[in-house]
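Following the same procedure, backbone shapes were mapped to integers, as reproduced here:
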Amino acid sequence: MSKIMHSNLANTLQDPEVYYPDNKKVCECNLQAQACDPGTRPLCTSTAHILYRNRRETDKKISEMSEKELLSVGNGQSTMAQPEQCGVTAPTAGARSVLEDGLSLTPLDSNSDRLVQPFPRSPKLHRNKGKAGKPSQEQLSRQLEELQAEKSKTEAHIQSLKKRKKDLSRSTETMKQQVREHFEKLLAVLKQDEQAVLDSLELDLRQTRSRLDQVLKTWKQHQDQVTKIMGSTQRALSKSSATEEDEGQSETLSPMKPDASEEEIRLNEERFLRLRKTLYSISKSLKAQLQRKTLLLDSCPVVIDRQTCHSQITVDSEGRAMSLSDSGHSAPEHPLQFDKVCCALGLSPVTVGQNYWEVDVRCSPAWAVGVAYTSLQRKGRDKGTKLGRNRNSWCVELRNRSLSAWHNDRHVACQGVGQTQIGKVGVWVNYGKGQLIFYDADTMVVLQRFTAAMTPVFDRAHHQFTEPLYPAIRFLRPPQNQMGPNHLDICPLNNL
């Protein structure tokens, strides 16, 4: 049936006058057709006319391409007669065949069993069609060998992963046991010290009791003496008359007064108070050290980037110690260098995970320690270059003996800071969660915590880090009465 329909359509297109006459005739494929006026009639939507119009457009394109090809022969000079001069309105059958093959067109053929392909075929389909074919025995054997080798490699890798999984479990159990042993030793030391303190208190109690027993014994002897004399006196009073001999034998007793040394017999309360203070200090220090121990697991090495240092900042050979001098060095200025603000940044940024470092600030009367984006301005003296005075930096700073935390040109006073000057500043960053915490590294007191809860104070909608963070340090102008050495050191935590 499809062959008959295809043949009828092809034969019909050979005589388009029947379906689409150039003069006024009735279109036979449209049962309700009016007189077909070429200027006003609607286009016929039958399959035959659609194919016919597509074929006419294709013939027109082929004719134009053939004419261009003929005119381009001979260095741009035509070697053949013009189509108009020869009365030719269409290219030859050979040229048509070549162009059809180049455009991948399928001509209408009444004897063809294939469906009509009105659009050009993709060259990729032709290539895939040419490559497709039944593989040879050699190819299949080689493919099988490759698959077997891949299977063996996969099995070996799976076994390796399983072994690593078991090793991880064993390693974890070993580490747990080692941690238990360390804490058991620590608990044993604490228990031993506790027992020693309790024994000391018990000894003090026994000694105090012994002294009190001696005093108590003396007073009991005195009491017995008083009781004895009272008895003899009562017996003498009970007689109607007393002989002179008896009167001469009357006993007398001197009154006994408390000795002042008795007041000194007490527990050594002063020693106990000192013990309590020592235990409190040890407990506080131990708590801080345990907390610091957790942070030290996230410690990262910090090295100062000399290219960012102000000209008055001198960095040691290891890149950890910085000192501020009155006059700057004569090195050429770098584009990343701070030219007006005495500031410096770290060499390596924080981009992922948790990181902790400490800065020794004991030898600087005025300073700022924090973090900053690489987009922090380096030139000038405006707020864009100063730590904490913009959205690109965070810091805690000591100025005029007052410690405060700064970000986005807003600040809050640091709480929990005693009268003594802070010795070391700890900086902890959780980059993924957007958390930044400053510590007093000696006591592990939190100086300031920058998290989502603090965003209203610092005018931030979301506290998330959007750029790599660099450790930042700045020397501030010291008070007039505190002139002297001025240097800051990065603490080597990896050696602990």
